[in-house]
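Field reference: sequence -> structure
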Amino acid sequence: MPVLLLLLGGCVQPEIQPAADSDGTPVPVAAATTTAATPGNWQVLRVGGNLETRVLQQPGITNQQQSAPFYTVGSARISAALPEGFAAPTPPGAIELKQYPSLRQALFDRSQRSGSAFFTLFRHIKDADIAMTAPVIMSGKMAGDDNVAGSMAFLYRSTTQGQTGVSERGVVVADQPPMTVLAIGFQGRDSQRQLQAMQRQLLDWLRAQPDAAPGRWQRDGGFRLLGYNGPDTATADKWWEMQLPVVWTAQ
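Structure field:
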C-alpha cells in the first residue's frame, strides 16, 4: 500500500507537525439527516454514521516551514499538509458529503503504464520541487475494486504550482474540476474486507435516501481511497477515507 514519506538522512518522517502544544479546536461541520442533505452553501455536511465526533484543527508547520492546518481525531493525525481549499478529513465512522474546489493532481494510471505508481509519483514531485501533501488518492484495485487496474494521484498544494501536461515517466498533471463526494472515514488496516465494507455503507446511504425528498444524490464515478499517513504511523492509527463521487438530481 502506498505511503507518504520524506527521505531525510535515511529516516522516514512526517511532513507536518503541530506548530505549538495545543489540543486544537473542533472543525465546524454542518449536520443534516437524509431528508435535508441537499446542495447548499456548505463544504462539509455530516449526513450519517457517527454524528458527534469532531476532527480537531490547530496551526501546523511543514518541513518546508510553511503554515498549514494540522488535523487530528483521537490517535489519528495527518502526515502532510492538505491542498489549499481541501476539506478536513472525515473522522472514523462518520459519513459526510464534501465539496472540493478545482485541484491540481499528478496522476499515474496503472492501466496505461507498468511500474511502481507511488515511487514514480514521488520522483515526479521531487524533480518538480513540489512538496508532498496528504492525502494520496487511489482507485481500482488499490481502493478495493479488483476488476479495475486503477490509478494513484498526488495532489499539489495549489493550482498555481508547476505545469500541467505529461511527464517523461507517464505522470499526467492536470487540474481537476470541482467535485462533490460522499465519504466515510475509518482507521486501522486497509484490508480488502474493510474497503468493501466501507463501500457498502456508502451505497447503503445512497439507497436509503427518502423518495419524498426534492432530489437525490446519485453515484457519479468510481470509488476513491484516500490515505492520510505514511510508514511513520502505526497501523492502528492510520487514517483513511473511502469516497464516491456523487451528483444531485432534482426530482
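Note: Residues 1-12 have pLDDT under 50 and may be disordered.
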